UniProtKB/TrEMBL annotation:
Alphabetically ordered keywords of this record: Cytoplasm, Hydrolase, Nucleotide metabolism
CDD domains in the record: Maf
Cofactor requirements of the protein: a divalent metal cation
MF terms in GO: nucleoside triphosphate diphosphatase activity
Keyword Hydrolase: yes
Reactions accelerated catalytically: a 2'-deoxyribonucleoside 5'-triphosphate + H2O = a 2'-deoxyribonucleoside 5'-phosphate + diphosphate + H(+); a ribonucleoside 5'-triphosphate + H2O = a ribonucleoside 5'-phosphate + diphosphate + H(+)
EC number(s) from the headed UniProt entry: 3.6.1.9
Protein name from the UniProt record: Nucleoside triphosphate pyrophosphatase
GO CC entries: cytoplasm
Compartments where found: Cytoplasm
Domain of life: Bacteria
Annotated source species: Actinoplanes xinjiangensis
Principal location: cytoplasm
GO BP term, example: nucleotide metabolic process
C-alpha cells in the first residue's frame, strides 16, 4: 500500500442498506449502480452465485471509471441458500408466501459475495460471508401481512433482519451485517489483503 494515498470507496450497489452500513462505520462511499443483469449468472450454488455477481458488479463499474489510483470499487451480492435452492429477491408476492411457508421454523444460510478492486493497481480481493438464519415459526396470517407490506419483495431471501422481518428471525449465527448486505469485518479483511487499513477510509 502507498501510505500517502487517501483512498476512496465506490460502492457498486443500489442497496441503501449497504450504503448505510458503510456510513455508520465512518465510510462515506460514492454509489455507482452497476446495472448488471443478475440473470446472466447460471451458477447453481449460493456461494458461486453471490461471488460471481459481486465480481461482475464491481468490474462493470470499475471498467467505466477514469483511472484513479485512490479509487477502490466494492461489489456485493446476497442470496439465501435454503434446502438446496438459491433464493434472491422473490419475483412475486405468491413466491414470497410460498418461500415463507417453507422456511418458517427452519434455517437457511445467507451468502453475501464481496469483490473489491483497485482501479489502477489491479489489486483485488474477494470473499463470501455466510450467516446462518433461524426463522421463527410464523403463522399464515403473519406471512400474509408481511408479504402485503411489500418489504419481502425488495430483499434477498424475502426477509430482513433490521426491518419488519426482524420479528420473524429467532436468531443468527455469524455477522448480522452480512445478512443486511455487507459484512464490515469481511471488508476489513479484504482491505487488509490489499495492505489498506480500513481506518484509512474513515471520514476525516
Ligand atoms: N435492510 C436490509 N436489506 C436486506 C436484508 N437482506 C437483504 N437485503 C437487501 O436485499 C438486496 C439483495 O439484492 P442484491 O441483488 O444483492 O442487491 P440489490 O439491492 O439488487 O442492489 P445491487 O447491488 O445494485 O444489485 C440488497 O439491497 C440487500 O441490502 C436485510 O436483512 N436488511
Amino acid at each position: 500500500m502507498q501510505t500517502d494515498i487517501a483512498y476512496r470507496l465506490i460502492l457498486a450497489s443500489a442497496s441503501p442498506a449497504r450504503r448505510a452500513l458503510l456510513t455508520g462505520a465512518g465510510i462515506d462511499a460514492e454509489v455507482i449502480v452497476s446495472g448488471v443483469d443478475e440473470s446472466v449468472v447460471e451458477a447453481d450454488d449460493a456461494y458461486t452465485t453471490s461471488l460471481a455477481l459481486a465480481r461482475m458488479k464491481a468490474r462493470t463499474v470499475a471498467a467505466n471509471l477514469p483511472a484513479d489510483p485512490a479509487a477502490l470499487v466494492l461489489g456485493c451480492d446476497s442470496v439465501l441458500a435454503f434446502e438446496g435452492e438459491v433464493f434472491g429477491k422473490p419475483d412475486s408476492a405468491d413466491e414470497a408466501i410460498k418461500r415463507w411457508t417453507a422456511m418458517r421454523g427452519k434455517s437457511g444460510v445467507l451468502h453475501t459475495g464481496h469483490h473489491l478492486t483497485g482501479l489502477v493497481s489491479g489489486l483485488q480481493a474477494e470473499a463470501v460471508g455466510t450467516t446462518t438464519v433461524h426463522f421463527a415459526d410464523v403463522t399464515d396470517a403473519e406471512i400474509e401481512a408481511y408479504v402485503a407490506s411489500g418489504e419481502p419483495l425488495q430483499v434477498a431471501g424475502a426477509f430482513t433482519l433490521d426491518g419488519r422481518g426482524g420479528a420473524f428471525v429467532e436468531r443468527i449465527e455469524g455477522d448480522p451485517g452480512n445478512v443486511i448486505g455487507l459484512s464490515l469485518p469481511l471488508l476489513r479483511r479484504l482491505l487488509a489483503d490489499m495492505n489498506i487499513p480500513i481506518t484509512s477510509l474513515w471520514r476525516r
